[in-house]
Amino acid sequence: EAGVAQSPRYKIIEKRQSVAFWCNPISGHATLYWYQQILGQGPKLLIQFQNNGVVDDSQLPKDRFSAERLKGVDSTLKIQPAKLEDSAVYLCASGTTGVYGYTFGSGTRLTVV
Amino acid sequence: KQEVTQIPAALSVPEGENLVLNCSFTDSAIYNLQWFRQDPGKGLTSLLLIQSSQREQTSGRLNASLDKSSGRSTLYIAASQPGDSATYLCAVRPDDYKLSFGAGTTVTVRA
């Protein structure tokens, strides 16, 4: 089966600019997550979708971050305006309910200068 | 709130030595626990998934144990190789919900 696809792989932007990341989950996976991983730390959940509804966005900085999941499939994560501290790897994961684990994409490495 | 701790933060061993990586979590009400591998600049690759009702899982040279009551899991890697050099992350899943990650253990296997 195809894995979780993310793009772009790398992005360098200046502070105060905007950026968007895209994720295509594994077909049939109802749950989609966006995680932020700062260098040297474990991934931190930003937002969780169940189909096209938001389950948890309590750790999403809503003044600058937004996310949507279109028709319960693809998802985009946007940052506007970016800050230096947003430099991190942004990971998308998808999964199903039940006994199965989650599959992660390769991530997008964002550098804000 | 679930807290996940991984000790040690970094580990360096000579090739052929067995690796022991530890993970502890504060809330034993978990659905499952998953071990991941992360190579520099890359995403996460799932290694082993242990359901809350299981005690261990094995895949090749990898074996992971789970003691839910004490909030601990251990990942064993037998006969380490330089290709095992990576960061290993432990993640717990409460009920049917989001993953909580530890900060990882960075392993270096010296040839």
What does this structure look like?
The complex is a heterodimer of chains A (113) and B (111). Chain A has 113 residues and is mainly β. Chain A is built from no helices and eleven strands. In chain A, strands 2, 4, 5, 6, 9, 10 and 11 form a seven-stranded mixed sheet that branches. In chain A, strand 4 (31-37) and strand 5 form a beta hairpin. The termini of chain A are far apart. The model of chain A has no long low-confidence stretch (mean pLDDT 92). Chain B is mainly beta and 111 residues long. Chain B has strands spanning 4-7, 10-14, 19-25, 32-38, 44-51, 56-59, 62-67, 72-77, 86-93, 100-101, 105-110. In chain B, the strands form two sheets. In chain B, strands 2, 4, 5, 9, 10 and 11 form a six-stranded mixed sheet that branches. In chain B, strands 1-3-8-7-6 form a five-stranded antiparallel sheet, with no helix packed on it. In chain B, strand 7 and strand 8 form a beta hairpin. Chain B is globular, with a radius of gyration of 13 Å. In chain B, 37% of the residues are buried. The model of chain B has no long low-confidence stretch (mean pLDDT 93). Classes of the chains: A mainly beta (113), B mainly beta (111). Chain A binds chain B through residues 6, 33, 40-45, 48, 56, 89, 91, 93, 97-107, 109, and chain B through 4, 32, 34, 36, 41-46, 49, 51, 89, 91, 96-99, 101-104.
